[in-house]
From TrEMBL, chain A:
The keyword Oxidoreductase is annotated on this UniProt entry: yes
Any Pfam family hit: TPP_enzyme_C
GO MF terms held by the record: magnesium ion binding; oxidoreductase activity; thiamine pyrophosphate binding
PANTHER family in alphabetical order: PYRUVATE SYNTHASE SUBUNIT PORB (PTHR42897)
Listed name of the protein: Pyruvate ferredoxin oxidoreductase
Span of domain Thiamine pyrophosphate enzyme TPP-binding: 76-239
Keywords: Oxidoreductase, Pyruvate
Organism the protein comes from: Streptomyces cyaneochromogenes
TrEMBL record, chain B:
Domain of life of the organism encoding this protein: Bacteria
Name by which UniProt lists this protein: Glutamate synthase
An example Gene Ontology molecular-function term: iron-sulfur cluster binding
Gene3D superfamilies: 3.30.70.20, Alpha-helical ferredoxin, FAD/NAD(P)-binding domain
Swiss-Prot/TrEMBL keywords: Iron, Iron-sulfur, Metal-binding
Residues covered by the 4Fe-4S ferredoxin-type domain: 480-510, 511-540
Automatic annotation (TrEMBL), chain C:
Domain Pyruvate flavodoxin/ferredoxin oxidoreductase pyrimidine binding, chain residue ranges per copy: 16-231
Gene Ontology MF, one: magnesium ion binding
SUPFAM superfamilies linked: Thiamin diphosphate-binding fold (THDP-binding), TK C-terminal domain-like
Superkingdom classification of source: Bacteria
UniProt lineage: Bacteria, Bacillati, Actinomycetota, Actinomycetes, Kitasatosporales
Family as reported in the entry's similarity comment: Belongs to the pyruvate:ferredoxin/flavodoxin oxidoreductase family.
Protein name as catalogued: Pyruvate ferredoxin oxidoreductase
Pfam families attached to this UniProt entry: PFOR_II, POR_N
Entry keyword Nuclease: no
Protein species of origin: Streptomyces cyaneochromogenes
BP GO annotations: response to oxidative stress
Sorted UniProt keywords: Oxidoreductase, Pyruvate
CDD domains: TPP_PYR_PFOR_IOR-alpha_like
């Protein structure tokens, strides 16, 4: 390690939101006392809402990257409902909500308008939950990708339809209990072999940029937003946002659970350009999937009355496959 | 802008009217907890706090913070056995923070830069006699001066420093470092009378018109044991050996030296013998290595320098350059028992390092004082049975280290101060401990400890140059930044970042954060994601 | 400029002169020729600045227009039939948000059975979507209604649908006075949005509104359409002044002043109806015709004024409200509330069935003679439907009617 690197070590510089010793250029956007707060206080998200957190992270970073000139288009869903019940809105940037399934197309329309008007300085972010993105909005999203519309589309993935009361979506993981995949019968919870990876599908469109992130990796997330905003065309960011209500976790555990999803290998964090994976965030402290599953009530049936070791092992195999497939296991540190 | 369509289109940020704080059943609070390093420090240093300053490269502030508790950082950074590092929470992540090394860096930096501490301009007009200029005496003198009192030190030896000078070898504590730190204390207006032995405390107090006395004469008499020996046996004690190193010429020990004992002084004696030309220096100890009182570091360094260790052995006889050694075994209680097996060992000199006693002859005329097992009994405030006469350091019951002595000096000074004012000193309530399980260590970057460079071996066995080198600035800074700031906010902004309700306000550098209870829903994310465990949830009433 | 051209092309050229900034295109017959021509105009650079976006569905087409319009761009698309239905959710959204999008609907039947030919089932199904609906009687009017549609939309902050009969108009070649750029520019000012997504003046558009204000929001939507009742004739008059020809407006009465029988209709069938009216007038029959151009808002007063003096009203509809019958008729009856006159509903021309003069003569003669049922299906093959009904009565599961009928039609040949 060179002397310069040693001096640059700041205890938490790489992982925490900020650090009193870092220069402004090295601080996260979220540590800025003058951050945009695209989503401000008074919103009606549940306590510890991962989506509220993720949306502010993303949009503040996008605004920073675009000099404040960002228009957001929002699909129907929790994020929309908790942020804009008449007569109050929590947004502080120009924001448009149209429908559940059309946010990518609406965003493409905004982008087209801006292009026609020569306002290329103003950038567009489309956003929705997993239902609005992987299911009902999927056609519009695929169209937006395929055309290369100049939109950064962000999916805040909490792995089910939370706004309507926690029903299964195409992003619900196997074995998870939802209101429509109940923890009863032969194979309780969501079925194995179903569900899709929208990041991989996005990559298949060979768009300029696809990335995944979680609310547990603020700096990683912000770096990806900045990277995406530095490009033109259709870009996709998939952010894992734990939902205390739907996952049955403590409100204080939102970030921890996201971290465990990442560290178990169940949620691979990577970047891809033009269809090729270009970078992965290596697992720093690997944990067995059980450590991720156990705190979540949606998986309680895997542990009670006695542990379903076969099902847990099956989920572990998914994690192992992700780790092998994306190369998530960090090189053993040289002692 | 035209009138906005009713209800469908809203003015931005209008949700501020919705005070979501009403949802809360618990609220977060910022707290201070006692870091394990601080808790473990015999000198009562606020280590976390001085590291906090050092992290930013503000070494002077760091040093000044350190100096509030300990006037000898450069000495301490060399000779302290750093229980702080043993207690350090970072041990459970990778390795302890190199607190001792940073302390030494700060101490050396202060000497290099000539930083000094000034006593208050206004004197209390109270005068305190300090007997002995070892670490306890110097520390007491320093703290008393800081509190505005006049201080006179009587020192029996020719030079000040006590065991720091006459017991700790130069290769561990260069004398220019010791002198610099003592001089800085003296420069605060402390009167030092060397070569002044106090034989009668009440008389000395009376004679000088002192309002209080602090006794810190240390434990400078080497403990002897009876070894049957012939006329030609050369036996001396370690205290005498190490003390004589400050004299005119080095003592003659011969080619082979046996050191009898298992403490740090035994290691010092053996290593000194190596440097004085002994080709074979053997430490003879009656128990096993893991039961040696010597610190691991000292043992390791001794072994590196070629010192041999002989376990489970007692010296039965010495004569004509040969020792008879009896093998011992440990009984089930761990006590060594003779085996009746003997062996021979060459030794031109036997150095006894079997512990030290205090010279308490000065206590005559103080019948109220209780002496038990060779040490003076004192109350919590270090006052003896005689009002106004306090005692500390090696002459009272405690672990005998420089750091403990420095802590005694501080403690005594505070109680003496209270005594002089006719009040009593009540130390502030301590914060709850900052236990490891309260930390969120995820946020600490992986950063194993820096190793302090060591003098090359060839020079270690031939010279008294300092063995352990200091850290350069960048490495010291790195070490300081490894501190996890257990139990105390270090402004990492995590709480500000992770609040989904933007209910935390950043007040600016050094000012911390405020929680906006109008909007805080009490989710607890800020507490859960606080790396240093300096927040907690408390129920709403 | 007068030219021999296809209806779709005339519309496309006129739309281009309206300087749309964003066009969303998705193919569906019989609307395709319009967006094809616009594609050419944009790609060639004749229309610029304009973003022409080939979207993946009609739902996306309308959604894209919503985004573009909210961002302050003049937005246009065209569709028909199933396409219109596929974008229904977005239609309501566009009007609810008050976005002045203009869309051409090349009217076509709705399946099943799938049918690509003309009737008004598609647009009629969206009569309550909050859009203004203007029906063109010929290709000249189809073209002319577009500049008017943009002006109305932007003045009122409401989306406007211009309905023109599929194939009958869209694919018909005829002499059309295509508006000129200079004229359109004089008639249609640049778009100044009532609300716009702008980082300099941010707003949140599309809030969730609960019971406390939803009724008021809907009332205001209705009130805006009522304002359109005043705006539509005014804009039509402006159009006449600039372009020198009459077009649009709320209603277009033909020989109604002394008419005892008035035939009400929308769209291209009015041409045939007026020809029959002329011929019957030649025979001395006091008959007239009322074309309704603005179906939404529905001009109750104007309709009542024209029809109030007649003895009999025949509403000829190219759509069917299954289970009740007429759609336009119901609206006409509302206009005639309290006036006692004989009203008959005729369902005609469904799925592209030709409405011939001969049939209309027969129909109107029957009406005047009092031989019409309250609900009549013009040129219905009664034998065929009776056989199927009989079959259905016999066998509970008699199979799909459409296939049974096709089989019958085949066996008849």
């Amino acid at each position: 390690m060179s002397a310069a690197q040693q001096v640059n070590f700041y205890q938490v510089g790489t992982f925490a939101a900020g650090n009193r010793l870092l220069g402004p250029e090295l601080q996260s956007d979220q540590s800025d006392p003058a951050r945009a707060n695209a989503l401000t206080s008074g919103h009606r998200a549940c306590q510890g809402c991962g989506e509220a957190l993720g949306a502010r992270y993303v949009l503040d970073a996008a605004q920073r990257a675009a000099g404040g000139k960002v228009i957001a288009v929002n699909a129907t869903g929790c994020l929309e409902v908790f942020s804009t019940p008449y007569p109050e809105t929590s947004w502080q940037l120009p924001w448009l909500h149209s429908l559940f399934g059309n946010a990518p197309a609406v965003a493409a329309g905004v982008a087209a308008a801006l292009r026609a008007k020569g306002r290329t300085d103003v950038r567009v972010v489309g956003q929705g939950g997993d239902g609005g993105s992987v299911d009902i909005g999927f056609g519009c999203l695929s169209g937006m990708f395929e055309r290369g519309d100049d939109v950064l589309y962000v999916c805040y993935d909490n792995e089910a339809y939370m706004n309507t009361g926690v029903q299964r979506s195409g992003a619900t993981p196997p074995a998870a209990r939802t209101a429509t995949t109940q923890a009863v019968g032969e194979e309780p919870g969501a079925a194995f072999g179903q569900g899709k990876s929208l990041p991989l599908i996005a990559m298949a469109h060979e768009i300029p940029y696809v990335a995944t992130a979680t609310v547990a990796g603020l700096r990683d997330l912000e770096a990806k937003v900045h990277r995406a905003m530095g490009m033109r065309g259709a870009r996709y960011l998939h952010v894992l946002v734990p939902c205390p209500l739907g996952w049955g976790t403590a409100s204080c555990d939102t970030v921890r659970i996201a971290r465990l999803a990442e560290q178990s290998g169940l949620f691979p964090v990577f970047e891809a350009e033009h269809g090729e994976v270009t970078d992965v965030t290596p697992i720093r402290r690997r944990v067995p999937v059980e450590e991720y599953l156990r705190p979540q009530k949606r998986y309680a049936h895997l542990f009670e009355p006695e542990p379903h070791t076969d099902v847990i092992a099956r989920i572990q195999r998914t994690a192992d496959r992700n780790i092998a497939r994306f190369g998530l296991q960090a090189e053993e540190a040289v002692p | 802008m035209k009138e906005k369509p009713f209800a469908i289109t809203l003015d931005v940020g209008s949700s501020l009217a919705n005070r979501t704080g009403a949802w809360r059943t618990e609220r977060p609070e910022y707290v201070h907890r006692l870091p394990p390093c601080n808790q473990a420090c015999p000198a009562g240093e606020n280590i976390q706090q001085w590291l906090f300053h050092a992290e930013s490269g503000d070494y002077e502030s760091a040093w000044r913070q350190l100096m509030r508790d300990n006037p000898l950082p450069a000495v301490m950074g060399r000779v302290c056995y750093h229980p702080c590092e043993t207690a350090c929470n970072r041990v459970q992540v990778d390795n302890a923070v190199g607190i001792n090394a940073v302390e030494r860096f700060l101490g050396d930096e202060a000497i290099k830069r000539g930083w000094r501490v000034d006593a208050p301009r206004v004197s209390s007009r109270k005068h305190v006699l300090v007997v002995g200029s070892g670490p306890a005496g110097l520390s007491a003198a320093y703290h008393l001066r800081c509190l505005g009192h006049e201080v006179t030190i009587h020192e029996a030896q020719e030079r000040p420093g006590g065991m720091m000078r006459y017991g700790i070898p130069r290769y561990r504590l260069p004398r220019e470092v010791l002198d610099a730190e003592i001089d800085r204390i003296l420069a605060m207006g402390v009167t030092l009378n060397c070569g002044t032995r106090v034989d009668d405390v009440p008389a000395a107090r009376e004679h000088g018109g002192f309002d209080a006395v602090f006794l810190a004469v240390g434990a400078g008499i080497g403990r002897r044991t009876y070894i049957p020996a012939g006329d030609s046996a050369h036996i001396l004690d370690a205290v005498a050996l190490l003390g004589s190193m400050e004299g005119e010429g080095p003592p003659l020990l011969g080619r082979t030296v046996a050191v009898y004992g298992g403490g740090n002084t035994a290691m010092d004696a053996a290593r000194t013998a190596r440097r004085l030309g002994a080709t074979d220096a053997v430490v003879v100890y009656r128990r096993t290595r893991d039961r040696m009182p010597a610190h691991d570091e000292e043992v390791e360094e001794a072994l590196e320098e070629g010192v041999r260790l002989k376990w489970l052995s007692t010296i039965k006889h010495a004569d004509g350059g040969r020792l008879t050694i009896e093998r011992m075994r440990l009984d089930e209680t761990g006590f060594p028992q003779p085996t009746g097996e003997f062996e021979e060992l060459d030794a031109d000199t036997v150095v006894l390092a079997l512990g030290q006693d205090s010279d308490l002859t000065l206590l005559k005329g103080l019948p109220e004082l209780t002496v038990d097992r060779g040490v003076v009994q004192v109350a919590d405030g270090l006052m003896t049975g005689h009002p106004g006469i306090f005692a500390g350091g090696d002459m009272v019951p405690a672990e005998r280290t420089v750091t403990v002595a420095v802590g005694h000096g501080k403690r005594a000074a505070r109680h003496i101060d209270a005594y002089l004012r006719g009040t009593s000193y009540e130390p502030g309530a301590k914060h709850a401990p900052a236990a490891f399980d309260r930390l969120n260590t995820w946020y600490y970057s992986d950063a194993p400890a820096s190793v302090r460079p060591r003098l090359e071996l060839a020079r270690r066995v031939s010279t008294f140059d300092e063995v352990v080198q200091g850290l350069d600035e960048s490495t010291a800074l790195f070490e300081a930044r490894r501190c996890m700031s257990c139990g105390n906010c270090f402004e990492c902004d995590n709480c500000y970042g992770v609040c989904p309700d933007n209910a935390i306000t950043k007040l600016g550098p050094g000012k911390g954060f405020a929680i906006d209870l109008d909007y805080c829903k009490g989710c607890g994310l800020c507490v859960a994601e606080c790396p240093s465990g300096s927040m907690e949830m408390v129920p709403e009433e | 400029m007068l030219k021999q051209t296809e209806g779709s092309r005339a519309v496309a050229e006129t739309v281009a002169y309206c300087r749309p900034e964003v066009i969303a295109a998705y193919p569906i017959s019989p609307q395709t020729h319009i967006v094809e021509e616009l594609s050419r105009l944009v790609k060639s650079g004749a229309l610029k600045p304009c973003e022409y976006v080939n979207v993946e569905s009609e739902f996306a087409a309308m959604s894209l227009c919503i985004g573009a319009s909210a961002a302050g761009a003049r937005a246009y698309t065209a569709t028909a039939s199933q396409g219109l239905l596929y974008m229904v959710e977005a239609l309501y959204n566009a009007s609810g948000l008050g976005l002045p999008i203009v869309m051409t609907v090349a009217n076509r039947a709705i399946g099943a059975p799938i049918n690509i030919w003309n009737d008004h089932s598609d647009a009629m199904s969206q009569r309550d979507s909050g859009w203004i609906q203007l029906y063109a009687r010929d290709n000249q009017e189809a073209a002319d209604l577009h500049p008017q549609a943009f002006r109305l939309a932007e003045e009122l902050s409401l989306p406007v649908m211009v309905c023109m009969d599929g194939f009958v108009l869209t694919h018909a070649w005829e002499r059309i006075e295509v508006p000129e750029q200079r004229q359109v520019d004089a008639f249609l000012p640049p778009y100044e949005p009532r609300q716009v997504l702008d980082p300099d003046e941010p707003v949140s558009i599309g809030a969730m509104v609960g019971p406390e204000a939803f009724t008021e929001v809907r009332y205001l939507a209705h009130a805006k359409q009522m304002q359109a009742l005043e705006a539509i004739p005014r804009v039509a008059e402006d159009f006449r002044r600039v372009f020198g020809r009459a077009s649009g407006g709320l209603v277009q009465p033909y020989l109604c002043e002394d008419a005892e029988t008035i035939v009400v209709a929308l769209g291209s069938v009015l041409g045939t109806i007026c020809d029959v009216v002329d011929e019957m007038r030649g025979r001395g029959v006091r008959i007239g015709a009322l074309g309704i151009t603005s179906f939404r808002p529905f001009p109750l007063d104007a309709v009542r004024k024209v029809l109030g003096g007649a003895r009999q009203v025949v509403v000829l509809e190219r759509a069917l409200a299954v289970g009740i019958g007429g759609i336009v008729s119901a609206n006409v009856r509302t206009a005639l509330s309290g006036i006692q006159l004989d009203g008959r509903t005729v369902i005609a021309g469904l799925g592209g069935r030709a409405i011939t003069k001969a049939s209309l003569h027969r129909l109107f003669d029957d009406a005047i003679a009092g031989r019409l049922e309250p609900l009549t299906f013009l040129d219905l093959d009664t034998g065929l439907v009776e056989r199927e009904l009989a079959r259905m009565a016999r066998t509970r599961r008699s199979g799909p009617s459409a296939e049974n009928i096709l089989r019958d039609v085949g066996s008849n040949r």
